[in-house]
Amino acid sequence: MYYIDLAVTGISFGCMYAMMSVGLTLVYGLLRILHVAHAAVFALGAYATVLAANATGSLALGFLAAIIVTPLFGMAIYRLLYEPLLGYRPDVPMIASVGLLVLMQDAFRVVFGEQGVTFRRNAFSFTTFDFYGVTVSAVQIALVVTAAIVFLGLHLFTTRTRIGVGWRATVSKPRIAASFGVDPIKVRYLNFAIGSALAAIAGGLVALLNNLVDPAIGFVVSYKALAIIVLGGLGSVRGTLIASLVLGLVEAYGTIFIGAWLDRDAIAFLALIILLMIRPQGFAGARAA
Fold first, then answer.
1. Distance between CA atoms of 187 and 21, rounded to whole angstroms?
2. Any idea which fold 2-278 has?
3. pTM score, two decimals?
């Protein structure tokens, strides 16, 4: 049963990485920019969830506040940071994005304190269920169920709605999409809004999982997310989902074999390095001839 427990842990963390990383993939697929500041959106979502939940006494309102605030912040990042830099080399907006991440991390530290914030009432985080000897926490279930609903909804949106189809067309064939009347500027704003909302949900769930949000909550996750989108094949949502689940499972099972020498994050980065050496084109990339 212990190995099944680890599988549950790995899948739940993989779902969190997926919700965080897909936003990066969407931005890269559309603008060819490594959106490093996405980690600041993740952290903002976590803070908004905790603060709103503490103020209202409702966890649902906490997540609702995060889903409202972070898309606005994400769209502001595009308008004020990236749009003026689109004519420059791709490394220029990436460097600006790193600067924004550092600035936001320091802003969180100044406003909320070095120690971070916690939920005042958080029985949800400590609720567990036992299924035939396998212990599963309520937060783990929430991570998996939320990810499944979110990505199913995203799939239906991009395949069954006019706006979603136009969005996909703009990512793959921007000139053709524009000739059919699709507004690329609106698509970019939509891209940042959806990606930011996904990061906010992931941040709020991680806040629940740890019962803590500190200024550095998005820092390590951002490194992993960048490696995940490379491993998944830059711009590929399907590859990103696969890479996220693989990383979550490798982290979980790696603690058994090399946990005495490396912590969880070190195991993840070691696995990512090895996987990228074996398959540098990523899971969704075409193998070189």
1. 19
2. ABC transporter involved in vitamin B12 uptake, BtuC (1.10.3470)
3. 0.88
